[in-house]
Fold:
Amino acid sequence: MMRIMARTTGLLALLFACSAPAQEIAPDALVKNAVNEVLGVIKQNKDQNTLLDLAEKKVVAHFDFRQMTQLALGRSWSQATPAQQEALERAFRTLLVRTYTAALSQSSGETRVDVKPAALKAGDTETVVRTLAFEPGRKPVQIDYRMRNTSGGWKVYDVVVENLSLVTNYRSTFQSEITRSGIDGLIRTIEAKNQKREG
Structure:
């Protein structure tokens, strides 16, 4: 799963940049505007620190990391203390941002993304924005953003790459670690991965 994500060369991070407030824009328009802006940045600068700064400043506004962490933990979320939940969310957010940034820096700069219109009816609070990413010499990659309309606007709570859910993928990994070393052990494992990426 992570290999497929890396191959998308940062396309999971296409929601990092959008100048309009999220609540004022439809989910598919949000993705489309962000695609153009982020791909423009990639073409001009692939420095990891620059991309990390971009991610840290922009990603929080468009991803619901608490919901993503809760879904990734599954039943174990309710077994975690509030302090553990906070630590898990913080560590998972850092892991995702650093993974996306590393993928962004590997982009060829020639990526093209088609964003499909979201099928929304009046009153809908959830939707899926489907995209197809093209890079020269590679098979197109389907990336779907599962989004929920919150008080802060539309936010992503799962990313599906070629029918593989980011949340589901992490859930099996997280459960294995919790079985081995408990929730605190999982927190230590994620934090260790984050420190390794810093090096």
Remarks:
- The longest strand covers residues 141-150.
